[in-house]
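Sequence dictates fold. Next comes a concrete instance:
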Amino acid sequence: MNKWKIGFWICLVLLIGVTITGLYSVIDQGVTLTYLRESCNDTESDMFTLVLLINDTDLTKEQIKEKLKTHHLFEYMDFNKTKYILND
């Protein structure tokens, strides 16, 4: 084989490798940002719910617990602590 044929195949393999690595990085970054955005949206929703319950009303801790019983993660909430964790 000629030297230029060997060089061509080496360059082609490197080009394909770099392209696949670049595509994987872009797709991985997109998936990571999507999960991060969803996590932030859940946290903001939980914070909005707590702000409405705690600041805008004068409910006691037991009344707040009753209001939060309809939350989809109620079984994971720990009301023995001084802080509320909705979406852990």
